[in-house]
Structures are given as C-alpha cells and as structure tokens.
Amino acid sequence: MLSVDVFSPEGLFGTPDRSLRVTSVYLLRTNRPPYSSILPERIFSFLSYPHLVLGDYNLHHPLADPSRSLSEREFTMSTRYFDAPFEVPFHLLNTPRVYTRFPFDTISRPFVLDLALANTALSPLVSSWDTPLPSTGSDHVPCVITLKPPTIVLPPPTPHCALLDLYAIGEALDAFTTLPCPARPTPNSLSRWFDISSTRLTSLLTSHAPSKRPCPRSKPCWSPHLLSVRREYHKFARISRLGPSPLNWSNVKSSRRTYFKAIASAKKTHWSDFLSSATPCSHWTARDLHLVARHRGSRTYQGPPTWPS
User: Fold this and answer.
1) Cα–Cα dist 267/13, whole Å
2) Same fold, 2-147 and 224-296
3) Percentage helix, strand, coil for the chain under 3-state DSSP, each rounded to 5
4) pTM (2 decimals)?
5) Domain ranges of the chain
6) Between 117 and 87, where is the model more confident?
7) Do the Cβ atoms of 51 and 121 come closer than 8 Å?
8) Kind and range of the H or E element at 31?
9) Per CATH, the architecture of 224-296 is what?
10) Cα 252 to the chain's mean position, in Å?
11) Which of 72, 169, 211, 254 is the most exposed place for a label (fewest CB within 10 A)?
12) What are 228-243's pLDDT values in tens digits?
C-alpha cells in the first residue's frame, strides 16, 4: 500500500480543499488469517479532505460484478473490504459489470479486480469512471477517472423589493386597474382572471425594483463596514511585508484585531436578528445553523438558540 499526498495552497479543483490523498493498494491472498496482506482498517480511514483509494484488490464481490457466482469463502473475504469503506464512508466509482482484467488464456473469464473508491469529500468532484483506453499489453485494462469541480449554478436575478421606491411609482399604482370580473364566473375563468391581474401587478412592481443576484459565496452578515476594515487590514499587511518594522507590525495587529472583532459583532447581530424574526417554519433552519456552528467550533457561537416567545 502506497499513499501520496498532493497539496495546493490555492485549493484543488476549484474547491477550498488544499490536500488530496491518493492511496494505491495491492492485496495478496494468504493461507493464514486474516487471509489478506492488508487489513481494511489500514486502507480506509476518515479524512476531512478528498481521499481516493484504488488498486488491484484480487477480490470478487456482487457490488462490482453482479453476474458472477461467488463461493462462500470469496464472499466472506470480499465483504470485509466492501463494508469497511461504506462505514467511513466511501463510494465505489466502478460501473457494475465493467471488467478490468481480461486473462490471456481462453479458459478464465474476465474479472473485476481493480476498484476505485472516493470518500465523501471527493465523490462530488468525480465526473466519470471509464475504461476507454486500449490495452497496454497487460491483462489489466487502464481505468480513467475524471475529476472536475462541481458546476456552480448562479441564482437568477430577482427584484430587490427592499429598495422599491413606492413614492416613485405612486402614479402608476393609482392608474392601475384590474380587468372586469367575468359576468358568470366559473372556477377556471375566475382562476384565469386572478392570474392575469396578479401577473400585471407583479410586473408593475418588479419593473421599478432594482435586480439583485447574490453570489454563491456571499454571506448575509457582510456589510460595507466589514469591507472597509478588511481593506485596511490587507493594506497594512502589504506595507508590513514590503517594509518590516515594529510600527508596521503593530498596525497589522491592530487592524487585524479590529477586522475580526467587526466580523464577530456582525455575525452576532445577524444571528440575533434572525432569531427575533424567526417563524415556526424557520425554527428548523435555526437549529441546523446552531448545530453547524457548534460542530465547526465557531468563535461567534453564542450557545443554543433562544426562541422568540
């Protein structure tokens, strides 16, 4: 078994994860317990960053090769190596029934011996697993694993109703009239009349409201004040790197302290405002945010949420 760690200071595959571990495994069968050269506990370990485990396992399992008939011993040996990764958890990348070994003799049938498994941090980045390349002269075919960052779909632009100037569109609202109601309304005609009137009024309001498109990485607690103190902190940091001195280092520490205090204050204020305006429908959202903050050990964690009366 061989593990290689790849580190990138700017992140891998467009994600904030800076490390990637690739583990190559080659299992040999033995005649003594545990009948394998490497135990599954050594192969599959919990890591918070992406981890890819691949290699020649010399095992047969119905999950990778459903059409194969297995003996009781083969099933017992392979089950340990398929149950252990799913508890960590890992995900099998192989496509079922796609063989990875074609023996040279005409007696043996093709096998699925080469496996690839990715943990939960890496599985969203896996685009495909395939065997499109020709044979290299070995009885094992090369497998191609394609990794790419997940596609980020930007939210569509929506009207910013908080910036809607009702006084500017007062004349348009005064002149707005609904269509006459049907003389003999039916459920379908009444529903159609309501939809048309609602659409006309909504179009009138959205045409006078500015549009907004929040960034996927935007934070609701961010404000222009945080932007200004952040710029000030980075300005002093650049000056200190160009000209190291006790005065410049003092300015860096002071601006950094101000920046982090402003972030903590903004998060605390946003959390308090969120709880004060929480509704029965948003209590579960507050509970999830509370659990995430406690799990990550956030500096701004203020204890369990206090529900409004």
Assistant:
1) 29
2) no
3) 40, 15, 45
4) 0.49
5) 2-147, 154-177+204-218, 224-296
6) 117
7) yes
8) none
9) Up-down Bundle (1.20)
10) 34
11) 72
12) 899 999 989 888 888 8
Handedness of CA 130, 135, 136, 139 (dihedral sign): positive
| Residue carrying structure tokens 């903590």 | 264
Give the integer Cα–Cα distance in Å for 103 and 222: 61
| Run of H or E including 118 | strand 114-119
Strands of 120-243 (E only): list them: 126-130, 144-147, 158-159, 211-212
Token pair, residue 64, equals: 């990778």
Q: Let me know if domain 2-147 sits in CATH 3.40.50.300.
A: no
C-alpha 251/C-alpha 73 separation (Å) is 69
Longest CA–CA span in the chain (Å) reads 90
| Structure tokens given for 233 | 């902190």
**For the chain, what's the residue count?**
309
Highest mean pLDDT among 13-27, 70-84, 87-101, 251-265 belongs to 251-265
* Amino acid 134: pLDDT: 84
Beta-strand relationship, 2-7 and 19-26:
antiparallel
